[in-house]
Structures are given as C-alpha cells and as structure tokens.
C-alpha cells in the first residue's frame, strides 16, 4: 500500500493514532513545548516509563506507551539544536524522522503523527525543516506504516507543509 502523507493543524496530544512523535529533550524527562504538552496529557505514568529509558542521543528515538493519551504509543526523538547549519543539523533531523519510523514499524504502527521537530526551542528554521521532514518520510521503505501526519501547531506551518506536499508528484 502506498504511504499516505498529510498535513493537519492540531495539538498532537489530541490525536487518536498509533503513535505520536515527541520532540523530546535528551533526558526524556520532559521539557517545554510539545514535550511538556505530551507529559501533561499523558500523566505521571509516562514520566515513570521514561525514567527507565535513560538518555536519548540527538537523532535517535525511543518508544513508550501512550498512557492517558488517545495515541497508543509515544515515540520520543531528540532533534538537533540549530547552530547555523554547519554542524550536521540537517542529517540529524532526517535521522529523527527515520529512526522514529523504524520504531513505528517495529511496533506495528499504521498511522504516525509528527510535530515539526526542532523548529521550536531548538531553533531549526521551519522553511528548511519541512522539506527535510517530507523527503525523509517519502524515502523511508515503509511496510506497515501507511499514513504519516505532519501535525502542525501554527497556520504558517500548515501552509508550509501543504505547499511541500503539493510539490510531491503522485501524492
Ligand atoms: P524542539 O525542542 O524540537 O524545537 P518544541 O516543542 O519547542 O521542540 O517545538 C517543536 C514544534 O512543535 C514547534 O513547531 C512547536 O510549535 C510545535 N508544538 C508545540 N506544542 C505542540 C503540540 N501540542 N502539538 C503539536 N506541535 C506542537
């Protein structure tokens, strides 16, 4: 089945999907932005589970249950901090998307929702991040995952992803 990609304006803590992705901090013990929202909505059980996971290096991902969230799983990935573009940020951001999808596949997730990783506190320019996100997901050899949702938290980001997706032939 071909992979379906779509963009949606939403708070990802509300999505009833197999997995939502968290732009976590490397301790996996919660933080601001989407990470804080996910921990608040999931409840203390998520923090408890994260404590057992240890450190997550930049570009890697870890998976937990969704606890009180409507999503079945949370995939936590540590996005790169933007340092001007010469520090491997693009490759690390792509690795976040790829490694999250590897975990989604391994856990039988069919629908996965990504936030715009690194474009908040980490300062990755959103105009550069969106094409990396879309290209990396398109290049992923998905077997079970059949839908990827780009969960946008602003109208600007939604327009950015919509125009990115409109440029993909056959979508
Ligand atoms: P990072 O540290 O990776 O930059 P942030 O959480 O600061 O992570 O921001 C990443 C993106 O997630 C930003 O585009 C931000 O607007 C968005 N965001 C924040 N809260 C939510 C949410 N509840 N659902 C979806 N996206 C969110």
Structural notes for this entry:
There is one protein chain. The protein is α/β, with parallel strands linked by helices and 171 residues long. It has one domain (4-166): Leucine Aminopeptidase, subunit E, domain 1, CATH 3.40.220. Helix content is 36%, strand content 18%. The protein has 5 helices and 6 strands; from the N terminus they run ββααββαβαβα. It has helices at 33-42, 44-51, 89-106, 126-139, 155-166, and strands at residues 4-9, 19-23, 61-65, 73-77, 111-114, 147-152. Strands 1-6-5-2-4-3 form a 6-stranded mixed beta sheet, sandwiched between helices. Strand 5, helix 4 and strand 6 (147-152) form a beta-alpha-beta unit. The chain is globular and about 45 Å long. The mean pLDDT is 96. Bound molecules: adenosine-5'-diphosphate (ADP). The site of adenosine-5'-diphosphate has 20 residues, from helix 1.
Question: Layout of helices and strands, plus pairs?
Answer:
Elements lengths: L3 E6 L9 E5 L9 H10 L1 H8 L9 E5 L7 E5 L11 H18 L4 E4 L11 H14 L7 E6 L2 H12 L5
Parallel strand pairs: 1-6, 2-4, 2-5, 5-6
Antiparallel strand pairs: 3-4
Helix pairs in contact: 3-4, 4-5
This protein binds adenosine-5'-diphosphate.
């Amino acid at each position: 089945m071909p992979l379906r990609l779509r963009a949606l304006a939403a708070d990802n803590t509300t999505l009833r999907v197999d997995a939502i992705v968290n732009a976590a901090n490397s301790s996996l013990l919660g933080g601001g932005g989407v990470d804080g929202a996910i921990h608040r909505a999931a409840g203390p059980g998520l923090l408890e589970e994260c404590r057992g996971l240890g450190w997550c290096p930049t570009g890697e991902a870890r998976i937990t249950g969704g606890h009180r969230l409507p999503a079945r799983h949370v995939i936590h990935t540590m996005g790169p901090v933007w340092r001007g573009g010469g520090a491997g940020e693009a490759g690390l951001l792509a690795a976040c998307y790829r490694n999250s999808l590897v975990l989604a596949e391994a856990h039988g997730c069919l629908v996965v929702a990504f936030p715009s990783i690194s474009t908040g506190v980490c300062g990755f320019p959103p105009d550069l991040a969106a094409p990396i996100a879309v290209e990396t997901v398109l290049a992923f050899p998905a077997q079970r995952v059949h839908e990827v949702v780009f969960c946008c938290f602003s109208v600007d980001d939604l327009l950015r992803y919509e125009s990115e997706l409109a440029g993909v032939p056959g979508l």
